[in-house]
Write a sequence for this structure.
């Protein structure tokens, strides 16, 4: 990969982490959280390294965010960057041997909102083939994370604007299958966000796997500090195996 291969929207924003595996491999686009104000380091490259260990190529996208105190709407810059990243990956921009029909997106918190929004776009070339959502922001209506709403839409966003970016309202039968996890006592982003997205998928006839762990703070990432919650990585690996994206481990 060279910077010349990158669309302008992705310059200086992507880190490619290849899997040590032969043949065309699936790739996962990693979207860290941070309330659309930053992109959290612990939800970025360490997650990509974990995915590479599963035999999945990974790309971390540091999508555009709004600086603290900014009031101008950020949307649609993050979505445009994420869509460009999926198209770039499918076009062979990473220089890796990627299966263009097996490109997933994995997002944490606000990055989960971006992943869910990307998963519900009408553009077949930009919509991923599978989705992983980790304690995601989903709804900009009920139980919304207002910090993400203000960063993305600016203060005073109306109901119509919020509805357009409420991913649970955008789900159709074309939305990709999803693995979703959250903690029941998340005090920052209510677990209802994850539940609503899974319910929307089930209602549309799209497979979804939902894991709700009893306890754990928001922003755990790989959750090394919480062994019970860290089981999400094993469950997610098994889900990828179920999709046929990796071999099931004995």
């Amino acid at each position: 990969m060279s910077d010349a291969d990158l669309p302008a929207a992705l310059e200086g924003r992507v880190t490619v982490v290849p899997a040590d595996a032969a043949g065309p491999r699936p790739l996962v686009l990693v979207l860290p959280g941070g309330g659309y104000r930053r992109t959290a380091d612990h939800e970025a490259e360490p997650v990509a390294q974990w995915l590479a260990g599963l035999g999945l190529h990974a790309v971390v996208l540091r999508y555009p965010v709004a600086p603290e105190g900014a009031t101008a709407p950020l949307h649609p810059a993050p979505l445009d960057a994420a869509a460009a990243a999926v198209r770039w990956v499918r076009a062979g921009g990473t220089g890796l041997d990627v299966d263009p029909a097996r490109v997933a997106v994995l997002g944490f918190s606000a990055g989960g909102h971006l992943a869910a929004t990307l998963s519900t776009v009408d553009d077949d070339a930009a919509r991923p083939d599978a989705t992983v959502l980790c304690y995601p922001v989903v709804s900009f209506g009920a139980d919304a994370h207002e910090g993400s709403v203000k960063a993305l839409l600016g203060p005073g966003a109306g109901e119509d604007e919020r509805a357009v970016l409420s991913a649970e309202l955008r789900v159709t039968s074309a939305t990709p299958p999803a693995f979703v996890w959250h903690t029941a006592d998340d005090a920052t982003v209510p677990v209802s966000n994850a539940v609503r997205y899974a319910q929307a998928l089930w209602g549309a006839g799209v497979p979804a796997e939902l894991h709700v762990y009893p306890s754990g703070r928001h922003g755990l990432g790989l959750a090394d500090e919480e062994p019970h919650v860290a089981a999400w990585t094993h469950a997610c690996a098994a889900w990828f195996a179920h999709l046929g994206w990796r071999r099931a481990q004995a």
Notes: The beta strands are 14-17, 25-31, 57-61, 98-108, 130-134, 178-183, 208-213. DSSP finds seven helices and seven strands in the chain. Helices lie at 45-53, 77-90, 110-119, 146-153, 159-164, 192-203, 227-243.
